């Protein structure tokens, strides 16, 4: 099983780099996954990551894109709830890349 090195410790990930156990996630792991994905995390990235994690913690599942966009609009306004905005942050897709960095399970349909 592949590993990601975080602060000298091995964290198990899938072949595609998704955390095997989302319960071990922390911000240092997020930074390591983001680095592997070529993403430099900003405050805006962290807002998206925290919203995705909050939804998962409350409902036990990853938010569908339509639902997530609505949550972002309610919390941060319409300018931060567009496809264009989210793809600027996560070029490989807010659901795929954003959730991967957030340490959440792989959404259905994401390879």
UniProtKB/TrEMBL annotation:
GO terms for cellular component: cytoplasm. One of its GO terms (biological process) is tRNA wobble position uridine thiolation. It is an enzyme of class 2 (transferase). It is found in: Cytoplasm. The keyword Repeat does not apply. It holds the Pfam family DsrC. The active site is at residue 110. Its main location: cytoplasm. Keywords: Cytoplasm, Transferase. Its EC number is 2.8.1.-. InterPro entries: DsrC-like_C (IPR042072), DsrC-like_dom_sf (IPR025526), DsrC-like_N (IPR043163), DsrC/TusE (IPR007453). GO terms for molecular function: sulfur carrier activity; transferase activity. Belongs to the DsrC/TusE family. NCBIfam families: dsrC_tusE_dsvC (TIGR03342). This is Subunit of enzyme for 2-thio modification of mnm5s2U of tRNA anticodon U. The gene is tusE.
